[in-house]
Specification:
rod-shaped; 5-stranded antiparallel beta sheet; Beta-Lactamase; about 15% strand; Helix Hairpins; 5-stranded mixed beta sheet; 4 domains; alpha+beta; about 55% helix
């Protein structure tokens, strides 16, 4: 059977192959759909044609069955078993009648001749059926293989189209990203933490006043253009992002070749591998010099506004003792006894000392300091409360100050006083019918990073409180609930000044029928200060480790 199959695969093409080689030949499937009687007639005709060829070609007469075998096989192949069977029977009859000698003719009565006839019919019909079956299986396999190839080719075509479409979309997105970054004055950077290299877009070089590609991808090269005072903060922010995986966001100054200082804002995200290790930092950078200058202008404007408000308060505070002095001097002019003059003169001296104290506190409050000083926050608060004493008494606000285990820290005194002044002023406005203001100073650590020690000032009032929407927008510039008198810059200035000191300000507020109020928490970290900048008597002050409570 295997030999027959190999013969069919190598030398006998399938019906579909015949049809491809000669399109004029009818398809085998068309012939197989004919009735069995028509196919039987065609088989008889094929047998007649084969024997006619054998009879017409004289050398073939010696081999009467030479063409009979392939004719029967092809009849089984093309005409089915009905055509093959009738073709074999017709071949036997025609060969027996016209081409075989009398002693070799098939004889039904003779057993040996009957066996010979049966063997001929069996072999031809079986061989034809086997080749037909093998050919069909081969055609099915070829069809399946062709279908698989077509499916594979279609899949490859679709995959190629998807890849081309994805590549085109990626190029379009990159082009749109570059356009968006350039239009907004932003640059793109990618830091490969494993290779230790940074890829920067051309816009980043322009932001720092350099030509694109003027220095390599080494991270140390970028640190050379950062302001020396900001290098430590940048490295600390990057290390925190690599360690915790949180978003990177930092503002710092850069030095241009002409010596000018510009501000940039950089933010990005940390990418990790399957094992949780940081692999890349991807982010953008923008030049925020104009915004910083605008913020500085607003800070100066708010400082001037605060100075105006303080001047009005100071004028009111000084006016009272001066009026008292004037009245006492008038009484002295009317007094005839020495004892009365001395009594009125003593009272006048007390009022003048009170005015002098207010003047000294005002000078401390508005004295501009160019460098940080090592001071205690409670001492700065005393100056603020002195200036607000008149408003506190008029509003019937009770103030309680608690400073336990307080240590000195380095800060700008005038800026810290402005922060406290804004908080105290807002607390007074929140308690129009009187109330209580509790202020507490204590050493603690930063809630975001427990390794950073510092001092925390907490202001808690019993005022009307704020709703959630107000709390969410309270630190935004020009947002105010005092539509008639407020500028909307007070709390924004507080947040900016605290951020300048690397600190943080938080707010909580609650409103209910039985109780309401607001709490502000200001954290200022301890910073190293050289002895030349330290206040007298405060050199070498360090926060004790046991003074930091656990939170």
């Amino acid at each position: 059977m295997r030999i027959v199959g190999d013969f069919a695969r190598k030398f006998i093409p399938g019906p579909a192959s015949y049809h491809r080689m000669n399109p004029l030949l009818p398809n085998s499937s068309m012939i197989e759909r004919l009735p069995w009687m028509a196919r039987a007639a065609l088989g008889c005709f094929a047998a007649l044609l084969a024997e006619a060829l054998t009879y017409g070609i004289v050398p073939l007469r010696a081999f009467p069955l030479l063409l009979a075998f392939p004719t029967v096989i092809l009849s089984c192949w093309f005409l089915g078993m009905w055509g093959g069977a009738f073709c074999a029977i017709s071949e036997a009859i025609l060969v027996n009648s016209f081409l075989t000698k009398s002693q070799l003719r098939f004889s039904i009565g003779n057993a040996s001749q009957s066996l010979r006839l049966a063997v001929f019919l069996t072999i031809t019909i079986t061989l034809g059926w086997a080749i037909r079956r093998l050919a069909r299986q081969r055609a099915q396999l070829a069809t399946q293989e062709l279908q698989q190839r077509l499916m594979l080719a279609e899949a490859e075509r679709r995959l190629a189209e998807e890849r081309a479409r994805a590549s085109e979309e990626l190029r379009d997105r990159e082009a749109m990203l570059q356009i968006a970054l350039q239009s907004n004055g932003m640059g793109l950077w990618i830091w490969d933490l494993e290779k230790g290299t940074i890829h920067r877009s051309d816009e980043m070089f322009r932001m720092v006043g350099r030509e694109p590609g003027s220095f390599g991808s080494d991270p140390e090269a970028w640190l050379q253009i950062i302001h020396p005072e900001d290098v430590g903060g940048v490295l600390k922010s990057v290390e925190r992002t690599r360690r915790t995986g949180e978003d990177y966001h930092h503002e710092y100054r850069v030095l241009w070749p002409d010596g000018s200082v510009h501000w940039v804002e950089s933010q990005g995200k940390c990418q990790r591998d399957g094992e949780g290790r940081s692999t890349r930092l991807v982010g953008v950078m923008a030049d925020v010099t104009h915004r910083k200058r605008a913020e500085d202008s607003m800070l100066r404007a708010e400082k001037l506004a605060l100075a105006g408000r303080m001047a009005a308060s100071v004028a009111h505070e000084i006016n009272n003792p001066l009026e008292a002095v004037a009245n006492l001097l008038y009484l002295i002019s009317l007094t005839e006894t020495i004892e009365g003059v001395r009594e009125f003169a003593g009272q006048a001296l007390e009022e003048l000392m009170r005015a002098s104290l207010i003047t000294q506190q005002t000078l401390k409050f508005h004295r501009q300091v160019g460098t940080p000083k090592l001071v205690k926050l409670s001492e700065l608060l005393e100056t603020v409360l002195t200036l607000f004493r008149g408003r506190l008494l008029a509003a019937e606000v009770e103030v309680k100050v608690e400073a336990k285990d307080e240590v000195a820290l380095a800060c700008m005194p005038n800026e810290a006083q402005q922060v406290f002044g804004n908080l105290v002023s807002n607390a007074i406005d929140a308690m129009p019918r009187g109330g209580r203001l509790s202020i507490r100073f204590r050493p603690t650590c930063d809630w975001r990073d427990r390794r950073t020690p510092g001092m925390r000032a907490t202001f808690v009032d019993s005022g009307v409180g704020m709703d959630r929407a107000t709390v969410q927008h309270i630190f935004e510039p020009f947002f105010t609930t005092k539509t008639e008198t407020g500028t909307g810059l007070g709390m924004w200035v507080v947040a900016q000044l605290v951020e300048r000191h690397k600190g943080r300000v938080s707010v909580w507020s609650w409103q209910s029928a039985s109780r309401s109020g607001t709490a502000f928490s200001v954290f200022l970290p301890l910073q190293e200060l050289s002895s030349t900048n330290a206040a007298p008597g405060t050199e070498g002050v360090r926060i004790p480790e046991d003074a930091i409570p656990a939170r």
